């Protein structure tokens, strides 16, 4: 059992994770970021000790891929109290202190009264002045004058309302049904909605995806991506849904396995606190993104020269 605390936060923010010693550092990183609702979109490193000045264990050349990707048990062993530091995003420098608190034979051995998290949530990207990102008119020498700025496409867009949406996200063709409810602001972009959906279903954000207006992938496409997590055009969901209670979208994830999710706008809220405490937020069991398979299928002795 690991305690993962975000450093330099007051009041403290931390999560406890139960992972097997054979878990690789790349997978541990994913679990940490998922717990803190961070996107796995930056470089990172792990260090043996309580700060980034300690010996480096592994680092990444691009997001999510750590080298060498040891099993955490190779580093921690059975040393109760051992500490690691996880540095995420070499620009914002998020530092997490990881402590090995307990060794378990079975996850069920965790006492029912164990507090699994405290504090938060923490915004990975706090609000900033978007004017900083805009073009300076003096720098625009007409290079974009021939572009129509997608004006025709934007004619059908709503102005995002200042409301929160209660969305029901159901995995299609799954028995018994599996779904999650999410509360998100109408200004949430589709890339962020994708992350929240995958986080809810405990899927890795490691494949291409698209969103569609309606209940099927044959309906008009809203946005798609050329590489994982980057949707274009990345509209605000309120520009598509408006205030249309009952409106539906389809989210297609992984163009190989073709996971399809139907998203329904169930309710408009002025404040997330307006949601009834009795609201059921999810139903159904855990869905394996990568079900167990026979690794022998990956190699054919006749092809191994």
Automatic annotation (TrEMBL):
It holds the Pfam family PRiA4_ORF3. Gene3D superfamilies: MM3350-like. Residues 126-157, 291-305 have a biased composition (Acidic residues). InterPro entries: MM3350-like_sf, Plasmid_pRiA4b_Orf3-like. Residues 2-112, 164-276 form the Plasmid pRiA4b Orf3-like domain. Coiled coil: none annotated. Residues 114-157, 286-305 are annotated as: Disordered. This is Plasmid pRiA4b ORF-3 family protein.
């Amino acid at each position: 059992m690991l305690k993962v605390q975000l450093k330099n936060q007051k009041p403290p923010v931390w999560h406890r994770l139960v992972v097997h010693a054979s878990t690789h550092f790349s997978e541990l990183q994913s679990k940490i970021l998922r717990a803190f609702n961070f996107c796995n979109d930056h470089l990172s490193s792990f260090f043996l000790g309580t700060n980034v000045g300690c010996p480096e264990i592994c680092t990444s050349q691009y997001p999510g891929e750590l080298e060498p990707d040891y099993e955490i048990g190779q580093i921690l062993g059975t040393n109760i109290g051992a500490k690691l530091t996880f540095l995420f995003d070499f620009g914002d420098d998020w530092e997490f202190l990881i402590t090995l608190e307990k060794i378990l034979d079975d996850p069920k051995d965790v006492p029912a009264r164990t507090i699994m998290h405290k504090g938060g949530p923490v915004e990975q990207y706090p609000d900033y002045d978007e004017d900083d990102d805009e073009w300076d008119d003096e720098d625009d020498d007409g290079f974009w004058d021939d572009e129509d700025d997608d004006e025709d496409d934007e004619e059908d867009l709503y102005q995002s309302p200042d409301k929160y949406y209660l969305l029901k996200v159901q995995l299609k063709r799954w028995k018994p049904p599996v779904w999650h409810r999410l509360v998100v602001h109408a200004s949430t972009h589709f890339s962020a909605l994708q992350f929240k959906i995958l986080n809810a279903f405990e899927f890795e954000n490691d494949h291409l995806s698209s969103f569609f207006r309606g209940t099927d992938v044959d309906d008009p496409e809203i946005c798609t991506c050329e590489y994982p997590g980057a949707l274009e055009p990345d509209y605000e969901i309120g520009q598509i849904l408006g205030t249309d209670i009952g409106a539906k979208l389809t989210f297609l994830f992984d163009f190989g396995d073709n996971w399809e999710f139907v998203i329904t706008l169930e309710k408009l809220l002025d404040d997330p606190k307006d949601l009834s405490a009795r609201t059921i937020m999810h139903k159904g069991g855990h869905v394996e993104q990568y079900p167990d398979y026979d690794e022998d299928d990956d190699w054919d002795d006749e092809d191994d020269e």
